[in-house]
Amino acid sequence: MPRIFTKREDVLIADASPLIFLSKLDRLHLLKELADRLIIPVAVWQEVMAGGALRPEVEEIRSRFEAYLAAPDRTLAAAYATQVDQGEAAALALAAHLPGALLLMDDGRGRAIAKAAGFRVIGTLGLLLKAKQAGLIPAIRPELDGLEKVGMFLGDALIRRALLAANEPREP
Questions:
Q1: To 5 degrees, how large is the angle CA 117–CA 12–CA 122?
Q2: SS3 label, residue 39
Q3: CA distance to 24, 40, 108, 124, per residue, from 98 (Å)
Q4: Where are the beta strands (DSSP E) in the chain?
Q5: pLDDT in tens, the chain (172 residues)
Q6: Are residues 90 and 114 in contact, defined by beta-carbon separation less than 8 angstroms?
Q7: What whole-number distance in Å separates Cα of residue 160 and Cα of residue 125?
Q8: How far apart are CA 50 and CA 58, in angstroms?
Q9: pTM for the complete prediction?
Q10: pLDDT number for residue 79
Q11: Which 3 state secondary structure label does DSSP give 154?
């Protein structure tokens, strides 16, 4: 598949669920292909690593991204933590200090807070669409099927919008 020019992100700040879902799809490589700089908040790292022996994706995440950790301003993270969990709070706090960074977050509450604060935010599915536009994956349909198989609830309306955005037929 030919690569289509898509602007790489300067900074991508990743939350836990996208890391886990991308690992389960064997798509972690997309993070480095779509961004010049990847940041994983320490709180997100701790969340992903918790119970690691029971989850096979943890070792892959550890081996690829242990060097990409950053700690946010504690006061700001604590303020966000009154509304979302520690990982999302840390990601939001880092985004506050990195104007123009793209937040990779699936949590609806965290995404709403990010948007209200004027931060740029994208979910796992949005990142996969970006990868398709860049020619890094051939189609979005198999990714949607894969996400559903590994436990992400997408819903029919979201699937239809993703297929439309990817210019793919609705039926497999």
A1: 60
A2: strand
A3: 28, 13, 21, 20
A4: 9-14, 35-41, 69-70, 102-104, 120-122
A5: 444 446 789 999 999 999 999 999 999 999 999 999 999 999 999 999 986 666 788 888 998 999 999 999 999 999 999 999 999 999 999 999 999 999 999 999 999 999 999 999 999 999 999 999 999 999 999 999 999 999 999 989 999 999 998 988 876 5
A6: no
A7: 12
A8: 9
A9: 0.91
A10: 96
A11: coil
Residue 100 three-state SS:
coil
Q: Report the candidate in 54, 64, 69, 52 with the shortest Cα–Cα distance to residue 26.
A: 64
Superfamily of domain 9-136: 5'-nuclease (3.40.50.1010)
Amino acid at 78: A
Residue 32: the pLDDT is 94
> What pLDDT is stored for residue 59 in this prediction?
85
Residues 6+ apart with CB under 8 A from 80: 88, 89, 90, 92, 93, 113
- Taking residue 85's Cβ as centre, other Cβ atoms within 10 Å add up to 17
CA dist 103 to 4, 69, 92, 162, Å?
A: 23, 15, 8, 19
